[in-house]
Amino acid sequence: MTQFKDQTLLVTGANGNLGRLAVEELLARGATKVIAGTRDPAKLADLAAQGVEVRRVDFADADLATAFAGVDRVLLISTVDPERRAHQRAAVEAAKAAGVKHIVYTSAPNARPNADAGGIADHFWTEQAIAASGLDFTLLRNHIYAQVALMGLDHALASGQMFNATNGGGRSYVTRADTARTAAGALLSAEGQAVYDVTGPAPVTQVELAGLISDLSGKPLAAIGLTAGQLSEGLTAAGLPPFMVTMLTAFDTDAAAGFHAIVTDVVERFSGRKPETLAAFLAANKAAFAA
Known about the structure:
The chain is α/β, with parallel strands linked by helices. It contains eleven helices and nine strands. The longest helix has 15 residues, at 84-98. The N and C termini lie far apart (42 Å).
């Protein structure tokens, strides 16, 4: 599971939550030539002190190929930049020009180009660019982070209601730590060209999620089902920008279609450990909503 530990491994976005965890996992698993890429190298002084090479990697830079110089394998972590489709395509082209052999990319479930996909379309086009590059690749379609289940809970618990348009569809929530360990494992061991769904151990419906949160917090919470149109209208009325409205609505309609209920063994395959359950994650983070 670590046959590439002595090759030069680059993690982009290493100052982010996922990237930093991935770098730490690579070090823990014996990687000897790790490069932490970031827009601001000064923020990774602690990793530099551990012997990690810290390198400026900004997908908007004109000379981006220099950021990938000498790299064998790269973990390309998707950004949240409004221009990420163009920037990530540029990163793929730069990696190829620099001689990178394998790209591991953090994508999303049901990546597609449809107009209703919101930001998920960016993942689709990045996947297409990677496939067209001719390089070996591992596309990791990370399912919904368990951390997302904590978002907006103060308001939900105050009102006793949690709105969704999933139509009873479950989500295989996966923790960020599990996705980071999976990404590091793929960087260390994956070969060829493959696409994987990275999931938690079991799908959880919004009714079940509300029950878990209610039990842990001691407060009543009901999952209220809406149509996609009603959810979109509500998010718009709440002041969210159109991009976010489309993306969040797409998340729920994809769950309603069953795309988020997929369960795989990919986390265990690449990390060597079973994924954490949503119930265990919520219990460990009870302080975030049960005050």
